[in-house]
Prior knowledge:
This protein has 7 helices and 22 strands. It has helices at 12-23, 63-68, 128-139, 151-162, 178-181, 183-195, 287-300, and strands spanning 5-8, 30-34, 71-75, 79-83, 88-91, 96-98, 101-104, 108-110, 122-124, 143-147, 166-171, 199-202, 206-210, 217-220, 225-227, 230-233, 237-239, 255-256, 268-270, 275-276, 313-316, 319-322. It has a 5-stranded parallel sheet. Helix 1 (12-23) packs across helix 7. The chain starts with a strand and ends with a strand.
Amino acid sequence: MSLGTVIVGGGLAAVRTAEQLRRNGFTDPITIVGAEAHPPYDRPPLSKQLLRGEVDSVALKPASFYADNQIALRLGSPVLGVDVSGHTVTLADGDVLGYDQLVIATGLVPRRLPALGDLDGVCVLRSLDDCVALRDRAAGARRAVVIGAGFIGCEVAASLRGLGVQVALVEPQPAPLASVLGEQAGALIARLHRDEGVDVRSGVTVDSVAGVSRVESVTLSDGSVIEADLVVVGIGSRPACDWLAGSDIEVADGVVCDAAERTSAPDVWALGDVACWDGDRVEHWSNVADQARTLVAAMLGAAAPTPGVPYFWSDQYDVKIQC
Length: 323
């Protein structure tokens, strides 16, 4: 009896892989294992529409999709480890799942600043629960400091301004998004935010935060102090692959895989933000569909599809930035 395919990760990459398997005639069992209790959901709206309260649901598929396609969901219990030789994964609840093929699609976890401590009011934004908590805090906030002016930081800053919160955007680079768009384009992004009332502080870092039980102010490396009752840390993320320690699956800034998404272990594949090939990872929503088609074709022994042209976008205020 076939054990089928186990997909670890409850996001876009997992859903696209399961969808492609069924579209290509795969009839063996498919199980998606998600650490969160929520069914797979779309992440881009978390820093935009959902944070601003403009949408209520960001589910990628209705419940009927999983039922109609016989895709089992195991939610709310992360995978703790994998036995490559035994073809099993162990869940936090103690269950052990066997697999014929394993797909790693665990994405990223946000980086944190240990120096900020555990003061109430210091938030990150990666998960649906993070977004709901941030939205609730923003409802009572007056002044926020957003640390990091990458895509997430800029989008959160724009959304908080839309909610009426005064925002300071702190970025160690010369301009927001400078590492992605260059300093000249980054200067335009800075002007966009300043025109909306954001206090953009470039070329500085956060030295410390202060407060009794809740954050009250942020001190920057230039000695300036910004009052704040909300701090959002958006300094990037790292691949979620700690659970692979000791598994003999090669990891180096993500799960190392070839152009067909194969890892160093037999019958184990990786895609999405956690996958690294030729020393690179592509953390863009639009890239996942191509990766899923490539992976499934290789898994089923079909011809590799022609990849599309990768692109990314960011919505800030009424401006859509696309590259």
